[in-house]
Amino acid sequence: MLRAAKVQRIHAILDEHFPAPPIPLAHDDAFTLLVAVVLSAQCTDARVNQVTPQLFALARTPAALARLPVATVQAVVRPCGLAPQKAKALVGLAQQLAAEHGGVVPRDLAALERLPGVGHKTASVVLAQAFGVPTFPVDTHIHRLAWRWGLSSGRSVEQTERDLQRCFPREHWNRLHLQFIYFGRAFCPARGHCVAECPVCSWAMSQARQRVEGGIGKGRAGRRSGGRARQE
């Protein structure tokens, strides 16, 4: 199948299954989204959504968070994992926002990436979901799907981002980012994945790539064993 036809078919399947995917991290503004995205590293969205109400009850603005002791923040965010690093990053980014940006989250990729604890993916998510700027944030799960579907070589997350941006129209990038995430959880998990039952892999994943992954999925039993993976 030609690349253009494959992309068009994948796009149609994603639109069919997830026509209006919601933003999975609960937030009220750009700052609370930024905090939630930082906390989501190696943590489920559901767990982050359980933790952030307590944190925002203590500090809902950069100025308020900047005044909190790191130890206080660490105690609150402990359930999200990597608590010492995340607490230090959150207080640091709040202090930098207050000192350098007037307490406002910048609508600029480079400025976001200069904040403590904010990498390219986090900055891209904030631009897309808080400001509507077209980006295609790629995490390890989107990276996996793009490789399985033959849309990218899988050399790096950065390469996958560039490949997906070339594949799909710019005006759809933000929705597609979320569609990939929800589709991966529902049909295309890292573990227990059954190629034959996946609405995309069943026709888009080459036999060579199936061999690389090696015996992924065993029918519906495989789907059940992947239950935890779908919570990524």
What's the topology here?
Elements: H1 3-17, H2 30-39, H3 45-58, H4 62-67, H5 70-77, H6 83-100, H7 109-113, H8 120-131, H9 140-148, H10 157-167, H11 173-187, H12 201-204, H13 207-213, H14 219-225
Helix pairs in contact: 1-11, 2-3, 2-8, 5-6, 9-10
In short:
The chain is built from 14 helices and no strands. It has helices at 3-17, 30-39, 45-58, 62-67, 70-77, 83-100, 109-113, 120-131, 140-148, 157-167, 173-187, 201-204, 207-213, 219-225. The longest helix has 18 residues, at 83-100.
CATH architecture of the largest domain: Orthogonal Bundle
Largest sheet: none
Helix content: 55-70%
Distance between the termini: 30 Å
Please report the total strand number as a whole number. 0
CATH homologous superfamily name of the largest domain? Hypothetical protein, domain 2
* Total individual domains: 2
Order of helices and strands: HHHHHHHHHHHHHH
- The helix-and-strand class reads mainly alpha
Discrete helix count: 14
The CATH topology of the largest domain, please? Endonuclease III, domain 1
Oligomer: single chain
DSSP strand (E) fraction?
Answer: under 5%
Shape: elongated
